[in-house]
Structures are given as structure tokens and as C-alpha cells.
Amino acid sequence: MDVSPFNPGALRSEPPEFSRSELGLANRNSGALLELLDADITPTGTHYLLTHFDVPLIDADAHMLDFAGAFDTPFRLSMAEIMALPAISRAVTLECAGNGRAGMHPRPVSMPWMHEAVGTSEWTGTQLAPLIARAGPRAGVLDFAFIGADTGFDKGVPHPFGRSLTPQQLAELDVMLVWGMNGAPLLPQHGAPLRLIVPGWYGMASVKWLTRIEALEHFYQGFQQVQTYRFRQHEDDPGEPVTSIQVRSLMKPPGVPDWFTRTRWLRPGPVRLSGRAWSGGGVPIARVEVLLDGQWADATLRPRPDIYAWTSWQIDWAATSGMHVLVCRATDANGNSQPMSPPHNLGGFANTAPQRVQVHVAEA
Amino acid sequence: MDVSPFNPGALRSEPPEFSRSELGLANRNSGALLELLDADITPTGTHYLLTHFDVPLIDADAHMLDFAGAFDTPFRLSMAEIMALPAISRAVTLECAGNGRAGMHPRPVSMPWMHEAVGTSEWTGTQLAPLIARAGPRAGVLDFAFIGADTGFDKGVPHPFGRSLTPQQLAELDVMLVWGMNGAPLLPQHGAPLRLIVPGWYGMASVKWLTRIEALEHFYQGFQQVQTYRFRQHEDDPGEPVTSIQVRSLMKPPGVPDWFTRTRWLRPGPVRLSGRAWSGGGVPIARVEVLLDGQWADATLRPRPDIYAWTSWQIDWAATSGMHVLVCRATDANGNSQPMSPPHNLGGFANTAPQRVQVHVAEA
Questions:
Q1: Cα–Cα distance, A259 to B229 (Å, whole number)
Q2: Which of the residues A113, A193, A311, B104 has the least number of beta carbons within 10 Å of its own beta carbon?
Q3: ipTM of this predicted complex?
Q4: Is B326 part of any domain?
Q5: Is A6 inside a domain boundary?
Q6: A109 and A254 inside one domain
């Protein structure tokens, strides 16, 4: 395959790799636009979207959130009651656990994200913990299940989208019940009228269209909790659950694109490269390195808007004529880095192998 | 390939068809969510997006629109001046000319839309014609070019995104200069701060991030006008230009989906099917037929919100256990229908072959 940008037409003969169902998911689910990475808050309508089933349209006036199961004083709240609670707004970076899946070899077959399943919004809502305390979980409670209004089938199994968190996880995480996004009401496709935001964890934990919180005296066995979102090495491996976001960085592609291949074109001379880096659990980014002309160079970091939001980085590059592949990699304050070859897993989760941006710099 | 929804796991072995560059475009560009087709106005953030190059972030306060070239009195307008002009709002259905491309055989290689590149917004702006008249096109003007701020390469050719309309087309079309969408400011990815809306035409005519309107005493030769968006049968065929939207219909998929294949599952019994139909040039929809149990049946049509917006249709079906493929096809008031096998063209434009919705109805 000829990958010279002098002959981009040749790229149109690249071999097929993705099936029709994968393409259907890619058409339905939306990735971020990497050229907008300079914005602290991802512009509304460009935040990534991964919808397992169908987006339900829910009447907010009639919507109730049930606190059910092993609570001493279970109750239901209307949206008006929830929105009368003390409100907080915070910038939180969400990322799909499957981000990077399309770069795995062999590639697990599901939504084939390249690098674009990430975004940062300002989420407005209320803290969940005081409501759980008010409902009074019984002493034997082991898990809290969060059930969405969206239902469907996966591998032949019908189920609503549901996830759980243990009492200890709830105590450690700043979980929010959210009704607003970027200063406006939550949009239907982002979970209106009410969703969970679990800051620092991959997006599957932030259940959309939330209808019910159930206290359980056993561990929740929902499909999305036990049959997927686990790091499994083989079919019989129960695997470890996918939880916190792993450290990753992205570059805003410099110059201008070729429409079809997205290869970048730019002129020789100084160019400021920029991008984002983030990790899970509120852990700050310690370092972003960028591979420029065969050498790793340290980028400058800027403070993040919230401990759960991404960090901005930048670095200057003297672009010289010819082909270049720009690579960035981040390290967090716990010393975790993006591995060049992350360990494989069956579900295709958390492939944090660095993004590679192919750039063609014109003759002087 | 086993397509039985009783064994959806088997579908994960379907053969690869799409290349990495096609998948990259599918991840970047967003399709509508068909489950939201009941809404007259597509919820903000779920309208389809096809961006040739990068989305530019433009400072609205500094943005100017130039009326340049063969005008007697060329001028520039600020956004404040444009937004002080008489405002109109209308619901307009936009569709990408490449919608349906992924269903063509052989498949032209570009953004591989299935059926989801359509949406309806309420666009707020002002009529373009009075401004053109004010600038005073010279007698020899043959074409008006509309140039966006977005630039890049296609087939090795650098160019800004630009399109043109002739004086006669401008006189016949209700072209708008638009700064608002669904009651809010235009979003960056939809062309902020200013875009064209050419009602009734495929989306390529509705230039986003509009910076310049140039009166020409020749026909505009921009890449997006002459080298693409044409119905070409072979490489040497200049082809006819892609203009008005061709008649098409879509069904809101009934029941609930399988996550991966999007095959639908539902229970036996009465089910109301619904969807949308639209054509170009303000031509109304005369008929929508739905293939139910081997017979075409007429759906009920409802009035559309604007002559340039889609029509809603519905029909009741008695779903019986087993596999079904539901098909809808529309006919407009000019007698144009969706052909089961539309004529092929090199660019993959206007493939209006009917959508086929695979439905599994459970045992009673």
C-alpha cells in the first residue's frame, strides 16, 4: 500500500478490515473531533457518544428516581425534588473503555474506536452520597445497582443497561446525579433527564437515563457488570473489572487534513503542537513527552480545570520538509505511562497505545 | 454467515468490508440516531455531521462576511450587522449527498453512510437574496461562489470548501444566511458563526463557516463544485451536478436492538411503525408504502412542519413470531419513487435504495 501523501488517491485501495456491523456502530456512535482539543470544555454536540441500545426520550416532568431494595427508608424523587437539592458543577473528562480498540491486534470486534472516544463537559447535578445515606442502606448491603431506562440484547441476553458500585467505591468516588451539561439541560443522547457521573472511571459506570438505585445484599449480576467491561485473557477467564481511566494523551493534529486519509499537511517552520492528557481517579498528569524527529521532548503542561478533567499540553516544533510521524505519551503522578504495546484483552478495553499522527511537511 | 438473531454471537465473524480510512471517517462524522425519528426537529447534537476538513473555531465578534468580485457595490458585514437584518426561522431537512453510499455495489470509497446522514433543524437567519441585490451583481455575472473558512486537501488538491449557485438558482431557491439552530446560537461543528442553508438541496450546498460570497463572470471552478458532487459513470465523464435531494424514507426501528448487529427484537402483537419521508425542492411526499408480510401497504402521512422539512408517517402492523424484513419506500408529488436498485455512480451519491430493517419477533 502506497501511503505517500503525494499520491493520496492510492490510499483508496487500502484493504478492508472492518465488518458491516462495526461500521454501523461507528456511524451511530460519535467520536470527538480532535481539532477541537484546545477547548477545555468539549463543544456541546461533539462529546463522544456510546449508546448500547436506543436513546430513550423521557418526559422529565413524569420521571422518578427510585431508591429501592435493601434500604431502611426507600423513597422516590421527582426531577423537581432532585433539582432542588444542593447543586454542584464540575468539569469531568469521560472516556469510553473501548477507546483505542481499533488499534489492537488481533482486534476485538465491538465499537471500533481509534482514539476519539473522549470528551470533557461541565456537568451540573448533586452529590449522590447524601441521598444514599438518607435512604439508609441496611448493614448487609454489598452493592448498589444503577439501572437505566435503555434496554436491549447483547449476545442474546435481554437486559436494561445497569452497573453497580460497592459501598466502599461510593465512599471513595465523587459520584454525581446529573441533570445539566455545559450550562444547559442534559441532552437526550447524554442521558436526559438524569444520569450518573462517576468521575475518574471509564464511561460505562456513568449510567444514563437513570431510573433506579437498588441496594443489594449480594453483588449485582447485570450483564454490563459481569459479562463485559472486564479485562479477560481467554473465554473462561472471569477477569478483573474495568474501573479507573488509564493514563492517555492525544494531540490536536497540526496543519490541515487530507479529506479521506486525515493525513496532515503543513508548511515548514515553527509550529506549536498541543493536546490533552488525562488519567483516572483524579491523579494528575506528571509529564507529556512528544516524539519529534526521533527524540522524546517534554511538553509544557497547564493546570487542569478540575481534578477529574484533562490537562492541556503544548510544545514547539521546527517542522522540516518530508514525512513525519508525531507521537505523544503521558505519565501520571503515580508513575503510570502509556505503554507502546499495551497488554491484550478479549474485550478490547483500555488500549492506551500512543496515537500516531502522520504529517507531511511541504518543501520550503 | 449465520444471521439468525438467536445466535448473534455468530455475526461477529462477518467478513471485513471497510478500510481503516473509511472507518476513520465514520468515527469522525456523525449519523442521526434512527430511534429519534419521531421528533420533528432532530435533537441538538444528533443532527448528522459531515466535515470535509477540520472544524474551525471562529471568533464571531471578529468575523466578517465579504461580498466581493463582480458586484457594483461590494461590502463587508460583521455578525452584528447580519444579525440585525430581518430574521426568519424555518425547519429544513438536510441530507448528505452520500447518504446510502455503504449500500452500493461496487461501493465508492468515501464516507460510508448507511442511511443515517439526515436531520432536521430549525435554522434561524436572514434571506440571502436581498443582500445579493444590495451588492449589485454586474450584468455579466454567471455564478456566485460561497467560500468557507475550512481548508484542506482532497486527491492532492489544496482548497477551501467552496460551492456556487447561479443567479437563476439563487432566484429559485430560498437560500438563507444562518446564525442560529434550534433556538440557540449555531454550534461550531454546524458552521458557527455563519453558514448557508440551501433548502431542498443536498448538504454540500449549505456551506459552513461562510467567509466570502464572490460574484463571478465565469463559472466557479472550485474542487467541491467541479471535481466531486457529480453523477459520473466513468472517470472521463464530467457528469451532471448533484443538486436537489431525491425522495427517500426511513423507518424508526421498532422494538429494541441487539447491541452489535442492531437487529431488532420485539414481541408479537400490534405495533405502530413510524418514520419520515422527504424529497427535494419543497416537493411534498405523496405516498409512503411499507412492505409488511410480503405486501406493500400505505402508511398515513402527517403534515410537515415546513415545505422543506420531512413528513412523518405511520402504519400499524400485527407482528407475528419469526424473522421479518421491514421495508419502506416513498413517492413524491412529482411521481418520483425510491428505486429498489438505483443507478450507480462513481461518487456514491443519492443511493435511495430503501432501508431494510431486520426484525425478530419472539414466540408468543
A1: 14
A2: B104
A3: 0.95
A4: yes
A5: no
A6: no
- Measured between CA atoms, how close is B316 to chain A, in angstroms? 21
**Cβ proximity of A33 and A46 under 8 Å:** yes
Residue A3 lies in a domain: no
CATH code, domain with A252:
2.60.40.650
For residue A228, the chain B residues in CB contact (below 8 A) are none
Query: At which of B179, B206, B241 does a domain end?
Result: B241
Residue of A11, A19, A223 to mutate when probing chain B, most B C-beta within 10 A: A19
- Shared domain for B164 and B259, answered yes or no, is no
> Residue B125's domain is classified under what CATH number?
3.90.420.10
Residues A128 and A186 in one domain: yes
Angle in degrees, CA A49, A55, A60, rounded to 5: 115
Say yes or no: A297 and A171 in one domain: no
Do B53 and A18 lie within an 8 Å CB cutoff? no
Q: Which residue has the cell 467541479?
A: B226
- Give whole-number Cα distances, B180 to B114, B177, B183, B209, in Å: 28, 10, 6, 13
**What percentage of residues in chain B have a pLDDT greater than 70?**
97
pLDDT of residue B60: 98
Query: Are residues A195 and A160 part of one domain?
Result: yes
- pLDDT of A219 reads 98
Mode of pairing for the β-strands spanning A143-154 and A157-165? antiparallel
Q: Are B94 and B121 in contact, with CB atoms under 8 Å apart?
A: yes
* End position of a domain, from candidates B241, B262, B296: B241
Across the interface, which of A17, A39, A113 has its CB nearest the CB of B27? A113
Q: Tell me the residue range of the domain where A94 lies.
A: 20-238
List b or e across B321-349, with b for residues whose CB sees 16 or more CB atoms inside 10 angstroms.
Answer: eeebebbbbbbbeeebbbeeebeebbbbb
Do residues A278 and A288 touch, judged by C-beta distance below 8 A? Answer: no
Mutate to test the interface with A, among B23, B34, B204, B252 (most CBs of A within 10 A): B23
* Cross-strand partners of B313: B275, B301
Same-domain status, B106 and B197? yes
Q: Do A109 and B7 touch (CB under 8 A)?
A: no
pLDDT tens-digit readout, A199-220: 999 999 999 999 999 999 999 9
Phi/psi of residue A16, nearest 5 degrees: -70, 140
Chain A: nearest CA to B208, how far in angstroms? Answer: 16
Contact A45 B43 (CB under 8 A): no
Q: Which helix (H) or strand (E) holds B291?
A: strand B285-292
The grid cell for A38 is 484546545
Q: How far is CA A252 from the centre of its chain?
A: 17
Let me know how long chain A is. Answer: 364
What digits encode the pLDDT tens for the residues A3-50? Answer: 344 444 445 678 999 999 999 999 999 999 999 999 999 999 999 999
- The shortest CB-CB distance from B36 to any of A57, A257, A260 is to A57
How many domains is chain B partitioned into structurally? 2
Residues B27 and B158 in one domain: yes
